[in-house]
Amino acid sequence: MQRYTALGLAGLLAVASLSAHGEDAGRALGGLLQNLLRPPVQNSASGATENTLGGILGIRGGQQQQGASANDLVGLLSQSLEQIDEPKEIEIGRQLAAVLLGAKPLHPNIPLQRYVNRLGRWISLQSVRPDLPWSFAVLDDPGYNAFATPGGFIFVTKGLIDQLTDESELAGILAHEITHVVNKHHLKAMQKTARAGLLGKVVASQLKNDIVGGFSSQLLNLGKELYSKGLDQEDELEADRNGVSLATRAGFEPYGLVAVLQQLRGTTPDNPLFALTFSTHPSPQVRLDQIEQAMGQRLDAFTGKSVTIAQRLSRTGNR
């Protein structure tokens, strides 16, 4: 039985629904957004971090990087991936998650949030890094997008959910994002930026003497560039190939991601809801060709009847 190192968003949302004393769920989640963006507050007695993304998701204070100054991020990202240990990776991911939540709030549908988090957590347990503080959530945005940050924080938009019907399609997308985290693709992209000297300009203009101000201001700029520019095309193709295998290993129809890409292939690139996806990923046909070369017919034996998202929500939404 795996022991989670994080409470997870499902637990958070369950607590929110019980403790709001009749408060509208949307307002409760709106208040959560403010907590996520607050500086870390260290409890002097227990060392626990409170009122931060890490504290809410159950990441202990001991996992945070302590005593860092603003320009430490340059040095950190100039190191090899092996030198960036897991606590540092989680800290970077937590703050990037706050950047994403600063742009778009969480969707107020608590059963949907719980379902996506449970689905993602199950798939992540089949990965080679099951002990990360994996957390999955739905952003209140009509666009068709999914985002991941180092350390296991993954978001999908409500617009993406609305375009899907089969649970295996969502599983394929989540497995794709999980693969990005497992293979540290975002850290690699950030390192390229740091080594190119671009991050130094951010530090020079926004230098502060504490981890909250320093890391947050740097990562805000770095995060905006990262998610608007996207990852390397080869990293995206690798996430497709490995994501298909991961979703299949988790017990889902292996052609879920293929169905998503076929849908994207029939979408006009000028559709504003899909604009970011098209600009940050290889063309759907290239992705389909790469998956075909990697899969062939080897996963045909794992195909079977799938469940729609609506059916799954009707079964699990009130639990």
Verbal overview:
The protein is mainly α and 319 residues long. It has one domain. It is 57% helix and 6% strand. It contains 16 helices and five strands. The chain has helices at 8-19, 25-36, 53-56, 72-77, 86-103, 110-125, 158-163, 167-182, 185-195, 198-206, 211-229, 233-249, 256-265, 275-280, 284-295, 309-316, and strands spanning 41-42, 49-50, 135-139, 146-149, 153-157. The chain has a three-stranded mixed β-sheet with strand order 3-5-4. Strand 4 and strand 5 form a beta hairpin. Helix 12 (233-249) crosses helix 15 (284-295). It is globular and about 50 Å long.
**Shape descriptor:** globular
| Mean pLDDT across all amino acids | 74
In angstroms, what is the radius of gyration?
19 Å
Q: Share of helix among residues? A: 55-70%
Taking the alpha carbons of the first and last residues, their distance comes to 21 Å
Give the biggest beta sheet: 3 strands, mixed
Structural class comes to: mainly alpha
**Alpha plus pi helix count:** 16
- Could you say how many structural domains there are in total? 1
SSE topology string: HHEEHHHHEEEHHHHHHHHHH
Strand order of the largest sheet: 3-5-4
Strand residue percentage:
5-15%
Topology:
Blueprint: H1 8-19, H2 25-36, E1 41-42, E2 49-50, H3 53-56, H4 72-77, H5 86-103, H6 110-125, E3 135-139, E4 146-149, E5 153-157, H7 158-163, H8 167-182, H9 185-195, H10 198-206, H11 211-229, H12 233-249, H13 256-265, H14 275-280, H15 284-295, H16 309-316
Parallel strand pairs: 3-5
Antiparallel strand pairs: 1-2, 4-5
Helix pairs in contact: 1-6, 5-11, 6-8, 8-12, 8-13, 10-11, 12-15, 13-15
